[in-house]
């Protein structure tokens, strides 16, 4: 296999293939079904799937469902949907809960070797005896129970003879180890919680550090690629692999820096809090960083994967600026989005010297594409323009419409504003304008070009504009949410869109001169809602 590695993970895999004579590279993506996947998971997804694919192998999807108190089939289904939407194809779906009998046997195997024992210390007592980074831990008084006694007690734990939290099974390793993870970690606890797949079959559940490496071994995973916070757990990962005698497969763990996006909440626990307290409209609210929210907002799989490609694979934790992700989205949409005209803050314009009923104007669907198709927009004497495209008292270098000034209407005429008509409160009701461009173009020039809509050939819409759910400079504070939550993270506008857009209901659109938009899932025929995906330019 002649593979040219592009990062240190691939380099190590190349060496493993050479030294271990590996025939097939198998990775896994092991999410816990306790929340929706978010943008931070996308880096792990890309690394797991693309690495295996590059080496001609495959990736398993395995749900780490070992904590039934927090898990639900709703999350499982959302994870499957997100992975498929991103375009990743897994070999097979597995569940850690399907390995419970096997994991129990692994635990029994450790007990029989004298490498695990039943402990009666409470969680608080275990934490107190674990020691610190500078002090050794203290042996549990139950550490020297006989193998026979431990086997009997562990079996009785499984049978439900003890109260929750009254006993645990701990690996017997080294309470003086400089790696605190080695100080007799808990590998099973008693917890009477119904499992969303297993029901009430079990009242003892394995801990992640125990279940994860042994599940990898069960599936013959060759490389367990995970984020950097598990680096200190790697010796424990290897210890379980090497000390459970019924395990023959020897997977290898390699870590990478996780994705941290500046100003973005990356904790599923905190995201769930926002949902439960009603600060957002569900897990797929476009202000959330979840994959389902990005999908609803209008992001594309290609842009998300390109973002992960741009930030690369490293072992150094860093914080990525959100504008890098937005740039990837913007680049992708610029190439694929159909251009349509929409007005978000409408101002009425009457063309006083236009004598036709209407006429057809051709608008390019995407000028970046050679020989792009065009669509028809209708021009008439009653128009909408953006309120921001007119100034009664213009500032310097304002090249749009002013009283007595001229502007070009995109694809159509040059007009001059002749009169401002105001209502009784002094607000502008409409503008009276005249066409000053004729067939010979008699020296008339306009510095600015604006878009427009025929008032009789458009549809009313609502546009939604999103910003960070947190105020600038704030971090998530679960005890002071009112202080840190941005009250203006969602702004709504009532505007209009050309009729042609209604023939493109499920595509990303560029509202010319405004930004990229996507039809929201809650839209109806009579209530069209468009989410702003990203602006045309990076404001930062």
Task: Supply the key terms.
29 strands; single chain; 540 residues; seven-stranded mixed sheet
What does this protein structure show overall?
The chain has 540 residues and is α/β, with parallel strands linked by helices. It has 13 helices and 29 strands. Strands 12-27-28-29-25-26-13 form a seven-stranded mixed beta sheet, covered by helices on one side. A hairpin with a 3-residue loop joins strand 27 (509-511) and strand 28. The model has no long low-confidence stretch (mean pLDDT 94).
Please identify the structural class as seen in this structure: alpha/beta
Radius of gyration: 31 Å
Largest sheet report: 7 strands, mixed
Oligomeric state, counting identical vs distinct chains: single chain
Task: Give the beta-strand count.
Answer: 29
Mean pLDDT: 94
The span between the termini is 45 Å
Describe the global form: elongated
- Uncertain segments are none
What percentage of residues falls in helices of 4 or more residues? 25-40%
| Strand portion | 15-25%
How many individual helices?
13
**What is the spatial order of strands in the main beta sheet?**
12-27-28-29-25-26-13
